[in-house]
């Protein structure tokens, strides 16, 4: 099977983007106000008119250029670079110290228990007073 290295089959590109977005043909059809068979036919078409392409891009949440320039290699490289750059270099800029928050929670829990214990002591004292 002889396939060119740079395919410009717009329908296949739409299909792959839809699959990567975890969208079924039925969902795309609903967004475009058509049926699943029309989406299947569109994804089998090598070319699509610009107006329809704009609608499809909007429904998929991408730009028309993203559809036209989509390639499997670029998508794979994007995700590989994303994973490579994030491994071991997670930069989380907390605006608080998590340990301080744990200590704060512990102290608030301790104060609550003290208030509950005092309430029980008051209740026991009141009941003892009533019994005398």
Automatic annotation (TrEMBL):
SUPFAM superfamilies assigned: lambda repressor-like DNA-binding domains (SSF47413)
SMART domains listed in its UniProt record: HTH_XRE (SM00530)
InterPro entries on file: Cro/C1-type_HTH (IPR001387), Lambda_DNA-bd_dom_sf (IPR010982)
Gene Ontology molecular function, alphabetical: DNA binding
Location of the HTH cro/C1-type domain: 14-67
Gene3D superfamilies xrefs: lambda repressor-like DNA-binding domains
Positions of transmembrane segments: none
CDD domains the UniProt entry points to: HTH_XRE
Protein name: XRE family transcriptional regulator
């Amino acid at each position: 099977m002889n396939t060119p290295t740079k395919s410009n089959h717009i329908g296949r590109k739409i299909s792959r983007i839809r699959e990567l977005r975890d969208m079924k043909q039925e969902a795309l059809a609903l967004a475009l106000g058509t049926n699943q068979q029309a989406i299947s036919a569109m994804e089998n078409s090598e070319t699509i008119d610009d107006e329809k392409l704009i609608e499809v891009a909007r429904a998929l949440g991408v730009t028309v250029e993203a559809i036209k320039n989509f390639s499997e290699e670029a998508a794979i490289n994007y995700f590989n670079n994303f994973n490579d750059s994030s491994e071991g270099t997670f930069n989380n800029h907390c605006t608080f110290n998590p340990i301080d928050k744990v200590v704060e929670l512990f102290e608030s829990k301790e104060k609550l228990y003290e208030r509950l214990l005092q309430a029980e002591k008051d209740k026991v004292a009141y009941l003892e007073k009533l019994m005398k």
